[in-house]
Amino acid sequence: MSKIQLRQIAHGRSGDKGDAANIGIIAYDRKGYEIIEKHLTAERVKKHFEGICHGKVERYELPNIRALNFILHNTLGGGGTVSLKHDAQGKTLAAALLRMEIEV
Amino acid sequence: MKEKIRIASGQGFWGDLIDAPYHQVTKGDIDYLVMDYLAEVTMSILQKQKNRNPNLGYATDLIDLMKKILPITTKKGIKVITNGGGVNPIACADAILEAAMHLDIKKLDVAVVLGDDIKNCLDDIIQKGCELKNMETGEPITLVKDKLLSANVYFGAAPIVEALKRGADIVITGRVTDTGLTLAPMIYEFGWDMNDYDLMAAGTVAGHILECGAQSTGGNFLGDWESIENFTEIGFPIAEAYPNGEVIITKHENTGGKVSFDTIAEQLVYEIGDPAQYITPDCVADFTSIKLEDVGKDRVKVYNVKGKQETEFYKVSCSYSSGYSATGTLTYSWPQALTKAKKADRILRKRLEQLGLKFDEIRSEFVGYNATHENLAPELDEDKINEIVLRFSVRAKDRNTVNRFGQEIAPLILTGPPSVTGFAGGRPKPKDVVAYWPALIRKTMVEPKVKILELK
Fold this sequence. Notes:
The complex is a heterodimer of chains A (about 100) and B (about 450). Chain A has about 100 residues and is α+β, with helices and mostly antiparallel strands. Chain A is about 20% helix and about 35% strand. Chain A has 3 helices and 6 strands, in the order E-E-E-H-H-E-E-H-E. A 4-stranded antiparallel β-sheet of chain A has the order 2-3-5-4. The longest helix of chain A has 10 residues, at about 30-40. Chain B is an alpha+beta fold and about 450 residues long. Chain B has 2 domains: about 5-115 and about 155-310, no CATH class; about 320-435, 2-Layer Sandwich (Alpha-Beta Plaits), CATH 3.30.70. Helices cover about 30% and strands about 25% of the residues of chain B. Chain B has helices at about 20-25, 40-50, 60-75, 90-100, 120-125, 160-165, 180-190, 195-210, 260-270, 335-355, 400-405, 410-415; strands at about 5-10, 30-35, 80, 110-115, 150-155, 170-175, 240, 245-250, 280, 285, 290-295, 300-305, 305-310, 315-335, 360-365, 385-395, 420, 430-440, 450-455. The longest helix of chain B has 18 residues, at about 335-355. Chain B is globular. Chain B starts with a strand and ends with a strand. Chains A and B meet through strand 2, strand 3, strand 4, strand 5 and helix 3 of A and helix 9, strand 14, strand 15, strand 16 and strand 18 of B.
């Protein structure tokens, strides 16, 4: 077992859908996809964003482009111009998820 | 039929690089220039402008741009498609035609797509049994009707196809989906059957890749971003489309940026929900079917896209005013920058409380520490941090309450922790808060209208 940080095997992009944030995580290769497919569950993502994401987390798989897509509900402080957050559109949340450490 | 067409993205949002469309029409061959100007917030801004002046309500930047590129696009036969018409496509088209006249252009047919703006016929729509329920909360729109700023239906590619068939050189629309702008010329040029959902999905995916401009060509790329060359002159994406639905995403030669599997994949996952059900007015595209392949320098083939029949509904985007907000910032320097900023935050909160002001929300963030990533930010060695910006925001229904907050920021400089600066630009002013109301409407209840305006 060794510990890796998600950013070593994946990149991604995040944005907003109303008050929900979307985070797409893309593995650099097939092997990386197998790791994120196994370890990067909706529950782990929800726990990672404890205190930030106040709703449920949904996970979708795109094995064709080695990607997972997460929808984090109730995360952006109301979304749009309602949100007082500096990052009201969740632009930096993909990077925040890449901080996660995974045992492989 | 043409064996291929090249569709170039010129803007990812209103406020994008002003000269990007000019570079797209000059640095290589393209057949179509498509430009997305409309974010959700944009519609409410444009509606306010139109309320003040009936000749406004469109992306005014577009007129200066057209003055610059019309001589080129008319000479080269490049067609321009944009949703920059906002809530007033006719005024936008008139302004373009006037600009064309001054440029001594002899022939120019400008099509406008109308009918998306349903704000003035809401009563009728509600009466006919459509409650325009909020897609997230299920509440009927009557709840916010008196505060409504804008209400627009998202049309798809169909009205743009009609405009092209009727000979338009330029198509100015109101609220049309970003993807429809790119799909439409493919349908028109290749004679695609709009019931061939795989083809509709292929063009829709190409549209999704183009709709945020350089975000698919290396901009905002979180992969190996330092490998991106020449951000300064970043090339915007071009979709080279083929009749069988295959699309090559590329950019002009001698521009900056990068087109690769990785840069395209990042854009594919941007702002999507269920990837197997990417719903547009034209089809339901399945992003899990897409195949990407690097086929040359800055060339990625997008193929094998599958789609299903479109739904019976259009999406409606309504906006309504929901109070006011304001943000103020103060910068604290070493030593103990974060400790000072946190102390100032507590003082400010206490003062607002003592003033008896009622806010819907108060939020403080410490830029340099946790404004992004919040509690995921690592503990900070304060001695190594030179400065922290306190970013303090409030939101309230009442404008005066927010305004009163604005008066409490500057006094902290003389009445709080030391080595503070950065209070420039005066007191924070209350800004209108605009909230969204996403809803659905049966397609049979609204109809897009296409009108062709000619040079006089």
